[in-house]
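Entry:
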Amino acid sequence: MIKEITLILFFSFSLFASTLHLATSSNPSRLNPLLATDSSSSEIAGFLFNGLVKYDKDLNIVGDLADKFYFENNTTLIFKLKKNVLWHDGAKFDANDVVFTYKTIISPNIATPYSSSFRFVKSVEALDDFTIKVVYKKPYFKALETWMMGILPYHILKDEKNLMTSKFNTHPIGTGAYKLEKLEFSKDIILSANGDYFEKKPKIDKISFHIIADSMTRFLMLKSGSLDVGSIEPMQLERQLDKEFFKKFNIYEEISHSYTYLGFNLRKKKFQDARVREALSLAIDRDELVKILFFKHAKVCTGPFLPKTKAFNDDIKAPQQNIQKAKQLLKDAGYDKNHPFSFEIVTSNSSAIRPYAVEILQYQLKKIGVKVKIRVMEWQAFLNMVVFPHKFDAVLLGWGLSSTPDPYLFWHSDNDKKGGFNLVGYKNKKLDKMIEKSQSMVDREELSRLWKKMFKIIVDDNPYLFLYIPNSITVVNKDIKNVKPSLNGIWHNYIEWEK
């Protein structure tokens, strides 16, 4: 009889449990915030882990695991931690976890680009179980943002010999609003609501990530209502959706905090000639690229920092296509019909747009006699076999960026290393010095002027060809309640969502 009642209760709960259905384009590599460098891993880890601070809906920095925080002086930061936080296994969160996370991320035993954010930290000390003192070597303009990094559990990982290969990376224990319930590679990843979450239990019981590499399949699942939230491309919005779809889904569109670029492997001799890079830039009609791929839902990208931020340089305009000048530059560099310049562009199929973008680039570059070979790969294979080992001529990729950029991560020579984000091997000593100077600036107007000078230097050097900034078009099932768009997107209050 007891078993029958238990079964009835179980099936009743299953019947009424709410599930948010999402899609991700690839298997997550590591569900560990220190090692989650691909978009799938970082997205899922974001539901499982918390930092000490976070952005609120208006992009203000507020406490997350920290209850309060303040600067004692311009190099000393104090965090007062929340006392009601539990790890997913029921253990209590405290200052030891923060100190352990810091020691782990700066350890030579792990390779992560995120360690660069901690390079100015002199010491991290637990003053008591719930107070952390961080001392910086000098003032650092992103001192607070550094601590948005997810915190790891000391009690679980203190004896871990190799975090890079640890089973924790696929069986994570965090403090987040959701717990990992099931991970089936190439199938589904299911998260369940954390009933002990320090804010409160999320109103949606489960989040199910369906791993779908093919962008068209993801789109068809959205159309059918099998997914609740998803991104769509401009072509799909303009030409491939009917009135019934708009009755079922709300559309949220804004300029994305990202851009797409063609990056050259500057370690290879053929890309080290500035005339070649300029020629390739002048061969491309960026306006045509945006028009064909995006209709009115994107804009041409002019450089490495986001528009409408203090780092953006309005004086820099996108190069205009100039076929004759491009041909002359190639000729001056020693290339002609008998000895054409050729290279391969590699990209992934995780985006529906990029394979088409590569074909347009191939067509445009052909006009100046350049031969382009195209390779489109699955996302994880692309990252692990091409991008991070630096085994490419050129890659078509994108970056998601903060409104407060840190040029050190992408443009400083130091980050041309294993696990670093300087993927193309760009080196400019003058820029390195400017970046180093900028790190300790606290005057935002002075910093803005320096960022704008960096912007121009990078664009003039053509290590990337900056192509376009797409709009972010997100569709959300109208059955999902309490979705509130903000400067920080739609996800800032996801624990309040109801279905």
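Residues 444-461 form the longest helix (18 residues).
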